[in-house]
Amino acid sequence: MPRTALRVRRWAAIAVLGGLLAGCGTEKTDTAGAAAAPGEGAGGRTATDVRPIEAAARITDARGVTVSLPKPPEKIVCLVALCDDILVELGMTPAATNSQVLAHPKFLGKEKAARIPAVPGGFLSPEVEAILSHRPDLVIGLEDTHGKLAPALKGATTFWPVQPGSWQDSVGYLRDLAALTGRTQQGEKAEKSFRARLARAEKQKSDRTALIVFGSDENFGVATPETDVAAGLLPKISHYPWKSRGVDGSYSLEEILARDVDVLFVETLSFGAPDGRLSDKLAKNPLWSRIPAVENGKVIEVDSEVWAKGRGTRSLGLVLDEATAALR
User: CA–CA separation, 295 vs 289, rounded Å?
Assistant: First the structure.
């Protein structure tokens, strides 16, 4: 697919290759950092036990980043949707955000989300002055994209660069922020709820072949477990034979046709004004209609704000719910 479209999807998914990957393509196990719980790894199943979270003024995340605050943060500016996801799970809202995920009905809904100030400059270039105008106690952004803002924010607020490469990383960040905010019970509840959903889905694993594709036009990419947090869940609940092919590698429709895909999830990415669904554009290719998922009406257009950008326990829980329902 065109390099511009591919880069934007990778920014959206965070776990990217090339300039934005930097350490996210790690092996996905259920023993990672703060996310680990007793009884992990038995038969590859996700444990549902949750270790207590203790309030703390200082944490060191799974990537070795230390965050130290004089008091629990109340005003948090989110530059990446994972931050919004975690705050909602903890019963909080951001002081400002540049994400659209809060408008989802399972988050705040459109009306409440509209009341949250937007950070001008968009995801790639949020304006420092606008960020600081909210007098934040903490700013959370994507390490590879927003790390460049750290020098400008230093001395005025605390910047926490995050970089989730798996659902375990996302749970770890949830636990860390729950500790910093003192919302430990909310954090434990959110983690337990997600683990329970994943464990249930694993027990009902489908033998159907699934696939997540993304794009803005007839050119598309395949979301793989190595480069996409949501895609990392799919091998646990379905047959998902897709592996990363590096920065410029992708799959052709001919290859997808040969894999007999039963259920196809489509993320339509919008560059400015909406310009139609990706699945409708791919339908122009005669090979598209021959894919079993297309023949059997199992092409599901999903919300890219949740599937591609959310990456927190609330978003990933929704991914599990929607995916397992479609895979039945």
Answer: 6
Q: What is the DSSP string of 110-166?
A: HHHHTTSPBPTTTTTS--HHHHHTT--SEEEEEHHHHGGGHHHHBTTBEEEEE---S
* DSSP 8-state code for residue 109: -
Q: Which of 90, 266, 112 is nearest to 178 (CA)?
A: 90
> 47: alpha, beta or left, given left = phi > 0 and alpha = psi -120 to 50?
beta
What are the two backbone dihedrals, phi and then psi, of residue 66, each rounded to the nearest 5 degrees?
A: -100, 130
pLDDT 10s digits, 252-292:
999 999 999 999 999 998 755 557 899 999 999 999 999 99
Distances (CA, A) of 14 to 98, 142, 229: 15, 8, 8
Specify the 3-state DSSP secondary structure of 16.
coil
Q: Does the predicted TM-score (pTM) go above 0.85?
A: yes
Cα 97 to chain centroid distance, Å, stands at 16
pLDDT per position as a tens digit, 98-123: 999 999 999 999 999 999 999 999 89
